[in-house]
Amino acid sequence: MTSTSAWTSQELDSIERAEELEIASLRRSGELGSRRTIWVVRVGDGIYVRSVNGPGSDWYRGTRARQEGRIQAGGVGKDVTIIDAGDEANDAVDTAYRTKYGHYAAYIVKAITSPEASSTTMRLEPR
């Protein structure tokens, strides 16, 4: 990873094992917004999240203002930078979602791997 403040192996493992992640984006005012509970996956040394409802979701739009926030998952609480992952990550992230959450109903997994959800793929970097 190119980040100077990379996840530790323990943080990566803990977040990967967590069923869900809570995220609150930093508002323009500098205050944290409302927390949302979402699914989270790990690909290599990266932590990724998506908006199942696509770019129209309130919490996703909230991440666009400052691209910073705070997460809580698997006992890890961390301030993060929220980075648009780009299309090159989507296949690996789709696979990670299908693998981790495949025990859910197919329509739910299909929603998180849809083109609309994929367009919101974000990588979380600790800061």
Characteristics:
Pnp Oxidase, Chain A, UCP028498, Split_barrel_FMN-bd, seven-stranded antiparallel β-sheet, alpha+beta, 127 residues, globular, 32% helix, DUF2255 family protein
Q: How does this model look, in words?
A:
The protein is of the alpha+beta class and 127 residues long. It has one domain: Pnp Oxidase, Chain A, CATH 2.30.110. It is built from five helices and seven strands; from the N terminus they run αββββαββαααβ. It has a seven-stranded antiparallel beta sheet with strand order 2-1-5-6-7-4-3. Strand 5 and strand 6 form a beta hairpin. It is globular and about 40 Å long.
Structural classification: alpha+beta
Spatial extent as radius of gyration: 13 Å
> Element order, helices and strands?
HEEEEHEEHHHE
Largest β sheet strand count, sense and barrel closure: 7 strands, antiparallel
Q: Number of folding domains?
A: 1
CATH architecture term = Roll
CATH class: Mainly Beta
**Number of helices in the DSSP assignment:** 5
Terminal Cα span: 14 Å
Q: On the 0-100 scale, what is the average pLDDT?
A: 94
Percentage beta strand: 25-35%
Question: Stretches where pLDDT falls below 50 for ≥5 residues?
Answer: none
What is the total tally of β strands?
Answer: 7
Order of strands across the biggest sheet? 2-1-5-6-7-4-3
**Shape category:** globular
